[in-house]
Amino acid sequence: MGKAKSRKLTILHSNDLHGDFFPKEKDGVESGGLSRLAGYVEKTRREEENVIYAIAGDMFRGSVIDSEFCGLSTIDLMNNLRPDVVTIGNHEVDYGFAHLLFLEKCAKFPIVNANLFITINNSRVFMPYINIDVGGIKVMFIGILTEEVLASTKSERIIGTFIGLEDAVREVGIICDNYRTTRTDYTVLLTHIGYENDIKLAKMLNPDWGVNMIIGGHSHTFMEEPTVVNGIPIVQAGTGTGVIGKAEIELKGDNGGVESFKWSCVPINPETAPEDSIMSELLDSYKTQTDTKYKRVITRWARRLTHPAREQETEMGNLYADALADEASYDVMFMGSGSIRKKEVGPVIEYQDLVENTPFDGAIHMLEVTGEQLRRIVMHLMRDDAWVGETEFYQVSKNLRITYRKSTHTLESLTFKGEEVTDDMRIKIGVQDYHFKNFTDFFGVPVEEVSKNMKPRVVATSEQNLIMEYFSTNDGLDAKVDGRITVLD
């Protein structure tokens, strides 16, 4: 009897689309856009056999089309993109958990997550896994979410998730032991926990569970080749619609496992992807509805400002932190770097730019900290995890200056209004609502301890109102990286 013929499986994947619906042009070259992404997926489905398309979380946020319709428009667009399986990202809960469950009912694609639970009866919120049969090949997808979702659902006590990776690993084992059978040809973890946590996860997996691949998201990691850990390739396709991940897998014909694995990140542009006319028409209809409201000029900055990375002081970070601290009752604004969504904006600023660049709204809280507590906060923010996208990082207003040396883990200088911070100083800080609700975890000092200095209070009900007013009444604004956060190696 001759050797059984191998079977080919193709898995396409995206992550962290974040409302990146329209193509961008740089140096005369067009890149991305949901219409071409849909065109590439459909082209691959036509031309190749046994194709599955997966999305590893964070479809929402980043576009006024998304925010104006509270994600319902995004679900409509995703229904036209037709993924075969999706997992939940942390931004899927931005409009509230009850609303997410409504959006799930509107989705025409399966959503999987294994470690999100209703705490009252310990029942799962979503299907933990799905078995997809494509051309007789049976592929299992298991969804795993970042623990960061807890931060967004702190007020919703009925929702919980496994906090540690160890618990998530245990859940993967339970699903594989109970639902992975000899008829399962390939097993994929579809995660939204970040690249570094994917590596930790892979190291902890029992080889007998048969996990073949991890498709990740959350950390927006662009990869040129897979990272193989514990025999498991880990892949991620950056962010947005400018690229798509493509895994080409040859399976042994006798159900004996993987014969070959090839992965690449494919650019989405006019050369690689045709436009999908139905998706283009749908996008145009939404854009027509939002343009009237959002295509109005608010102000003009002196030049185009940048926010290239979260884990460093940036031009836009300084501008926004100073805007929120302008004429404020607190001394220093700590603005979450992740609140700023775009890498560059300006010089002409439309209402749409402001909403898309800082889409989150909420109260501003004022707390008072001692100099000693502020030092502990800064040391916590500068810990090693900060440099691999595993923690919250902050942009600070102009009154504060930080100099930190990574190699020795030392805070070499911390000044307030030009003076070195002493332990007995009292400094009022402003923080956004999301960060206040998670103050102990994000800042490393118990909120109960800080509250003994002064009862925290709301000093503004809407950060969007502050930002909009500041920019609309100040023309020609400029900002530079001026040494507020200096990190030495």
Structural notes for this entry:
The chain has 489 residues and is α/β, with parallel strands linked by helices. The chain has 2 domains: 7-287, Metallo-dependent phosphatases (Purple Acid Phosphatase, chain A, domain 2, 4-Layer Sandwich), CATH 3.60.21; 296-488, 5'-Nucleotidase, C-terminal domain (5'-nucleotidase,  domain 2, Alpha-Beta Complex). The protein is 29% helix and 29% strand. The protein has a 6-stranded mixed sheet, with helices on one face. A 6-stranded mixed sheet has the order 9-10-12-13-15-14, covered by helices on one side. It is globular and about 75 Å long. It starts with 6 loop residues before the first strand and ends with a strand.
Question: Nutshell version of this structure?
Answer:
The protein has 489 residues and is α/β, with parallel strands linked by helices.
Topology:
Layout: E1 7-14, E2 24-26, E3 29-31, H1 34-47, E4 51-56, H2 64-68, H3 72-81, E5 85-87, H4 97-106, E6 111-112, E7 116-118, E8 123-124, E9 129-134, E10 137-145, H5 149-152, E11 159-161, H6 165-179, E12 186-192, H7 195-204, E13 213-215, E14 227-229, E15 232-235, E16 243-251, E17 258-267, H8 277-294, E18 297-300, E19 305-306, H9 315-325, E20 332-336, E21 344-345, E22 348-350, H10 351-357, E23 364-370, H11 371-381, E24 394-396, E25 400-405, E26 410-416, E27 419-420, E28 426-432, H12 433-437, H13 439-443, H14 447-451, E29 457-460, H15 463-472, E30 485-488
